[in-house]
Amino acid sequence: MIKPILIHPDPRLKKVCDAVPDLSDDLRKLADDMLETMYDAPGIGLAAPQIGVTQRLIVLDCIKEEGESPRPLIMFNPEVTASSDEISTYEEGCLSIPDQYAEVKRPAEVTVKWIDRGGNEQQEDFDGLWATCVQHEIDHLNGKLFIDYLSAMKRQMITRKMQKLKREKARA
């Protein structure tokens, strides 16, 4: 089921999320709903707080090439365990901050460990867009948005645009 995505500013987007203590069928269903919501948006990543759930759960799929098989990942309690000294810059966007993009610098490569949908511990090295996306989504779990990496002036400008967008949507 497709869930509504919260739009910044919303206090739920700034909360640090709780660890998932135990996988339940409800949490697995939530993860499936999040994937459906992400693909529908369309996006390449979604974190539970973006749909108002303060649990450490993210979903992502950075396969965008026509004809390539999707690679949906569901991560419970994801954690970056190592990151490269090399930095990469990507123009990032966010489903909670629609139509706003900015260049963000992050480690070019990261190692992430997480619990998968089946309850198994996984670990993988990510680079390129996957590394940027997984770090962006994990930031959400810590109450951090990509605009928090920008100057105060740029951040305020984007926040004002989002407030205006929310007012317009409320009137519609």
Report on this model:
This protein has 172 residues and is of the alpha+beta class. It has one domain: Peptide deformylase (Peptide Deformylase). It contains 3 helices and 7 strands; from the N terminus they run H-E-E-E-E-E-E-E-H-H. It has helices at residues 25-40, 128-141, 152-171, and strands spanning 45-47, 57-60, 73-83, 87-94, 97-107, 109-115, 121-127. The protein has a 5-stranded antiparallel β-sheet with strand order 1-2-3-6-7. It starts with 24 loop residues before the first helix and ends with a helix.
Offer a quick outline of the entry.
The protein is globular and about 45 Å long. It is built from three helices and seven strands; from the N terminus they run H-E-E-E-E-E-E-E-H-H.
Mean pLDDT: 96
Helix content: 25-40%
Number of strands: 7
> What is the approximate shape?
globular
In CATH terms, what is the fold-level topology?
Peptide Deformylase
Give the radius of gyration.
16 Å
Secondary structure blueprint with pairings:
Layout (H helix, E strand, L loop, with lengths): L24 H16 L4 E3 L9 E4 L12 E11 L3 E8 L2 E11 L1 E7 L5 E7 H14 L10 H20 L1
Summary tags:
172 residues; alpha+beta; Peptide Deformylase; 3 helices
